[in-house]
Design a protein that fits this description.
8 helices; 8 strands
């Protein structure tokens, strides 16, 4: 494996600090739960249990966001480990959105031979839509554009996406928000050295800066 591109160390550090704060609060809530059960204050105990469940769910989803996804070149293939919904670290297709956000999305591992790749586009969904008419991608983002739940829609607007199209019309894509831009560009350049015919489009000063540096 020729290196990975994943969530930046800065983002992981900040996320880890928040997770440890929540974990400490959960431990305190657990102690208060036991204390209130001993005193027969069951309503208070129940409220602390709910807090523990919410805190634990937050930690699990954060772990999924910070540590579960990456892109890498393995031999002559691009390998992407991403969430099954492509864009969010939590479940998104529940009728009651609040419950979906308590559950981490599943992870999938995708492999694409580099000699079959025809294009790579890195940028927001709007940028990618301007540069491809891929129906699979348009359908995937439409799930969140045509919804009454505005939170996911707003998040997706700002999400950086790594899009890969193949010569036979297939495509794979995933969120790379908070990834280290330099590592992403290094992966892109590694693929281009193996397949100089790849058409690359990068949106964003950070990516273009490191493209020049490489």
């Amino acid at each position: 494996m020729n290196g990975k591109a994943s969530v930046s160390k800065k983002k992981r550090f900040r996320g880890s600090v928040m997770m440890w704060i929540v974990i400490i609060l959960c431990i305190a809530a657990l102690a208060l739960t036991v204390y209130n059960i001993i005193l027969s204050n069951y309503w208070y105990a129940a409220s602390y249990i709910i807090g523990i469940v919410l805190g634990a769910s937050y930690v699990v989803v954060c772990l999924n966001e910070l540590y579960s996804t990456w892109i890498a070149v393995e031999g002559d293939s691009l390998v992407m480990r991403c969430w099954d919904n492509c864009f969010f670290p939590y479940q998104t297709l529940y009728n009651i959105k609040f419950f979906g956000e308590l559950l981490p999305s599943k992870n999938v591992r995708l492999r694409v031979p580099i000699n079959e790749i025809s294009k790579i586009i890195v940028g927001t969904k709007t940028f990618i839509k301007r540069n491809t008419n891929d129906e699979a991608f348009l359908e995937a983002v439409a799930l969140y554009e045509n919804t009454k739940y505005n939170a996911n829609q707003r998040i997706l607007e700002k999400t950086d996406i790594f899009y890969v199209g193949t010569a036979d019309g297939d495509s794979v894509f995933m969120s790379i928000s908070n990834f280290d831009p330099k590592s992403v560009v290094r992966i892109v350049n590694s693929m281009c050295r193996r397949n100089p015919d790849i058409d690359v489009k990068l949106n964003g000063k950070a990516y273009r800066k490191y493209l020049r540096d490489e």
